[in-house]
Structures are given as structure tokens and as C-alpha cells.
Amino acid sequence: MVQPASHDPMVPQVMRVAQAQLDAPDVFTLKLEPEADLPRFTPGQFNMLTAFGVGESAISVSGDPASGDGIVHTIRAVGAVSRALTELRVGDSLGLRGPFGVGWPMEELYGKDVILLAGGIGLAPLRPAIYRLLAERERFGAVAILYGTRSPADILFRSEVESWRQRLDVDVHVTVDHADESWHGQVGVVTTLLPRIAFDPGRTVALLCGPEIMMRFGVQALGSVGVPDEGMYLSMERSMKCGIGLCGHCQFSPAFVCKDGPVFRYDQIRYLLALKEL
Amino acid sequence: MAVEGLERIVRDHPFFKGLDESFLELVCGCAQNVRFEAGAYLFREGGPADQLYLIREGRVALEIAAPGSGAVTFQTVSEGEIVGISWLFPPYRWTYDARAMERVRAIGMDATCLRTKCEADHDLGYDVMKRLVPILFQRLQATRLQVLDIYGKPAA
Ligand SMILES: Cc1cc2nc3c(=O)[nH]c(=O)nc-3n(C[C@H](O)[C@H](O)[C@H](O)COP(=O)(O)OP(=O)(O)OC[C@H]3O[C@@H](n4cnc5c(N)ncnc54)[C@H](O)[C@@H]3O)c2cc1C
């Protein structure tokens, strides 16, 4: 696992916003530049971002791990901290601790068919994995990206999704919950996309990220077509504080979401999914 | 089209996959090939629900007209899927619009014919029910997720 660049993982580094882009209503993608060394990360890891004077939130890295050009995060404004983060503009400063956690099992995907099942803002934590898959495309079997979101206006990284769709070696399907007549794509929940792709369930690994209800339905749908529990990985967004397994805020015996996750293999966290609060 | 051609299409459609040969002949007696150009309606809300469509090609938008905001598409249906369930139960009226988003080729099943045959032969009727109920269940589940608005803003 990649270690945080900062010696003391509780002390934030100061970062500067180099780019801020509106990606969907209330969703901003920020490119951050550090004042010192750039921390390295693996796909699926997250940072703790501080909006000074407001608070700190766990936010997954959404940029390309191979790019040495800043750290990219995509944030949806839902509460005080996330709103303050989305209100940052070029030149503003913020704090960053990380990267933390165990990300997507990229090496385990070699030679396998790979399904990425993303819902809403959940495409952001999967994007670094998509960059890796595309960069090393020949090392994987069939690759499918299934993305569901609320409406056409909520599609994240739209031009990039369109460019992935044009590739002949990746199967990309997008669906929305509802649309008006100007939308020519698919309408329906994300699991309805599964019958549209070809894969060998026994040698498939699925990576899921999105609202927990969506992931629960996703797991059921994948299981019903024969993908084993050990072939599904989920990124859990349970609330956390320290990020390094010390404070116990996100602990559910025996796992800490921050330290042992946020990505877990489904058979190891089945019990967590049924819990309302953590 | 030759009857064998129609039988082959009905047999190969996922909805009737694995259908017993004797049933196949019965249901094919109710079937015909149909085509809709982009923008045409397969049916409109309130009209008599007299067909079951097995989609062979193209995409269909299922829509509800919302006052002030035009039509809202709540589901799309494509190749290998079916459109139309209201023909099963009284009052046999469509409860939404179905619009071809592109050119659509389908098998249209005359619903009165199919219902009559299902009534006359309950084995066939039960077989058809077992094919329809999972689709109804999937749509119910999908509707639950849409109603929950899982990607929407959480209540503060
Ligand atoms: C490992 C990990 C990675 C994450 N990655 C991202 C990311 O890449 N981008 C991103 O925008 N967020 C991400 N989150 C969520 C983020 O950490 C915050 O929970 C979220 O931004 C809300 O924080 P807040 O303090 O602004 O709102 P709060 O004041 O905590 O909450 C405000 C309201 O939003 C609801 N809420 C809190 N969290 C969420 C959530 N995740 N989804 C929906 N509703 C929520 C609360 O129930 C409350 O109603 C991640 C969380 C974890 C644990």
C-alpha cells in the first residue's frame, strides 16, 4: 500500500486549487497542487480534505494515478464541508491528509472479465481504475462500464464517458432514472444493463461504487447471473474521522472502513451492508 | 412471411425461450410482424390494451405525460424485451405511452387471441404467467429504486 507522503498522517498538507470545473449540478472536480511533494495513490484510495474553518471530509481520488499532474477530486455538495469544498476556486487553499485506505484490487483483475458498476457520484472513485484498465487494456478480458445516474444532466465526466464509448475494446452503457424526449439513451435502473454485456461470470470481477442501495441491488443482480461473492468488490462510504484506524469512528468489528477499506470484497462485508448506521 | 419464419422468430425471442413446441404453434397463431418508424407510438395511454410486443430491434420509450413538463420517460425497452402488460387484466387499457425512439421491429401478439388461448389451455396460461411475473417483479423493483431517488440529494 502507498504510504501517506506526510510523516504525521494527522497533519494536513496545504494544497492549492489549480483547476475547478462544474461536472454536474452541485458536483465539482478540483485539481489540487501541493506545495511540497505530490502524494502518490492507487485507484480507490481517498484523501481527507479540509475546508479551513468548516471541517474535514473523506473524498476519493478521481484522477489518473499515472499522471504526475496534480491530484484530482470530484465532490458533490451535500452538507457543510462538501459544499465549502465545491465553493473553492482556482488559487484557494485547502488541507489534505492521505492517501488512505485499500483501493481496488487492480492486480487481481489481470486475465479476468471486468465489470464496473457505477451509480451517480460513484463513477468518480472508479475513474482511476478505469484509467488503469484502459492503459493496460491487453492484460484484461472483456471490460464493461455500466453507469446509472439520475437524469441526463447528472452524467459525470460526460465527454470522457463518450470517448470511452467510442473505443471498440470497452463496452460502455449509460442509463438514467428518468429523462425527457431529448434523451436518446437508455432509461431504467443500472442493473437492467447487465443483460447487454457479454462476460464469463465464473471469471469475472465486478467493482461497484455508488449509493449503498444501488450496490445492494447490484450485488443481487450480479449474483443472479453467476458472479460469485468473492468476485465482487464494493467501495463503502461510511462516515469516518481520522482515516487511519485510530479513532474507531468507522469501526465495525473487526473492520475499519478507513484502514481496511474503503474497498472490500463482498463476502467480507455482507454483514455491513445490512446495517443502517455505522 | 412464411409461418416457419415467424415461429423461428418467436421461439428465438428471449421471452418465449424454451417454449414447448405445442404451445409455440398456439401462440404463433396470434403473432404477426410489425414495424414502427422513429417517433411513432406503439400505443397511447388510455387506448385499448390489445397487443403484447416482443421487441426484435430498436428502442422504445415508455412515457407518462406530465403537465407542464412534457413527456417523462421512466423506462426504455430494447431488443429481446417486451412491451405491454396491461392486456392481461381488466380493464385492458394502456396506462402509459410507448414511443419508438428509432425504427422498431417487433412481433405483435393479438392480446384477445392470446388471452383466449390461455383461458382455453391453462397449462399454456400458466407458462405465459411464469414468463410475465418475473418481468413484472423486475419492473416493481426498478420502480422502487426510482421512487427512492437514490442518486438524489439526501434530506438535510
Ligand atoms: C472513503 C470515502 C470516500 C468518499 N468519496 C467521496 C467523493 O469522492 N466525493 C464525494 O462527494 N463524497 C465522497 N465521500 C462522502 C464524503 O466523505 C462526505 O460524507 C460527504 O461529502 C458529506 O459530507 P458533509 O460534511 O458535507 O455533509 P454532512 O454534514 O456529513 O451531511 C449532510 C447530509 O448529507 C448526507 N450524506 C453524508 N454523506 C453522504 C454521502 N456519501 N452520500 C449521500 N448523502 C450523504 C447526510 O446524511 C446528511 O443528510 C466519501 C466518503 C468516504 C467514506
Describe the model.
Chain B: This is Cyclic nucleotide-binding domain-containing protein. The complex is a heterodimer of chains A (278) and B (156). By secondary structure, chain A is of the alpha/beta class. Chain A has two domains: 88 residues, Elongation Factor Tu (Ef-tu), domain 3, CATH 2.40.30; 130 residues, 3-Layer(aba) Sandwich (Rossmann fold), CATH 3.40.50. Chain A is built from six helices and 15 strands. In chain A, strands 10-9-8-7-11-12-15 form a seven-stranded mixed β-sheet, with helices on both faces. Chain A has a six-stranded antiparallel β-sheet with strand order 4-3-6-1-2-5. Chain A starts with 12 loop residues before the first strand and ends in a 5-residue tail after the last helix. The mean pLDDT of chain A is 90. Chain B has one domain: Jelly Rolls (Sandwich), CATH 2.60.120.10. Chain B has four helices and eight strands. Chain B has a four-stranded antiparallel β-sheet with strand order 1-8-3-6. In chain B, strands 2-7-4-5 form a four-stranded antiparallel β-sheet, with no helix packed on it. The longest helix of chain B has 27 residues. The radius of gyration of chain B is 17 Å and the shape is globular. Chains A and B meet through strand 10 and helix 4 of A and strand 4, strand 5 and helix 4 of B. Flavin-adenine dinucleotide (FAD) sits at the interface of chains A and B.
